[in-house]
């Protein structure tokens, strides 16, 4: 392959959609992490685990992994930490003793509701900065990509 063909074959990573989406998601996640870290000293897996349990009310660790795309080790550690904070309780499944159902305690619900408000405000700030038409275009584009990549 000669130099001209190599130059034409070069893929600038910063122009590749998967890279750009990942970079944007990481920047937004890191910025929001400041909020839950400042308020509760939480890690990203702890926040995502808390948010997932809060969203569904009663859920298993395996379901958290599936919903949040986190590895079971990270979810397990987050569950342990949230339990140490007394933010969640485990109940053994009566039909399968290997399965535990997770629910937020009253303290956990309080933290979840507080952080949910913070998350909504954070998202509103981003959408406001984008403006209505760009925010709508972003939502439409994300939905289109999600459907294209994982049609269900």
UniProtKB/TrEMBL annotation:
Under what name is this protein listed? HTH marR-type domain-containing protein
Q: Which InterPro entries match?
A: HTH_MarR-typ, MarR/SlyA-like, WH-like_DNA-bd_sf, WH_DNA-bd_sf
Any Pfam family matching the protein:
MarR_2
All copies of the HTH marR-type domain together span: 14-147
Could you give a single Gene Ontology term from the biological process aspect?
A: response to stress
Q: Which PANTHER family match?
A: MARR-FAMILY TRANSCRIPTIONAL REGULATOR, TRANSCRIPTIONAL REGULATOR, MARR FAMILY
Gene Ontology molecular function: DNA-binding transcription factor activity
């Amino acid at each position: 392959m000669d130099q001209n063909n190599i130059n034409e074959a070069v893929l600038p990573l910063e122009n590749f959609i998967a890279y750009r989406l990942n970079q944007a998601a990481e920047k937004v996640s890191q910025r929001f992490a400041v909020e839950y870290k400042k308020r509760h000293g939480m890690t990203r897996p702890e926040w995502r685990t808390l948010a997932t349990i809060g969203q569904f009310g009663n859920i298993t660790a395996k379901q958290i992994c599936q919903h949040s795309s986190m590895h079971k080790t990270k979810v397990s550690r987050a569950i342990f930490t949230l339990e140490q904070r007394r933010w969640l309780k485990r109940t053994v499944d009566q039909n399968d003793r290997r399965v535990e159902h997770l629910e937020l305690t009253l303290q956990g619900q309080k933290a979840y509701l507080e952080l949910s408000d913070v998350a909504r405000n954070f998202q509103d700030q981003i959408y406001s900065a984008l403006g209505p038409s760009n925010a709508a275009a972003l939502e439409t584009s994300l939905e289109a990509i999600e459907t294209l990549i994982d049609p269900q």
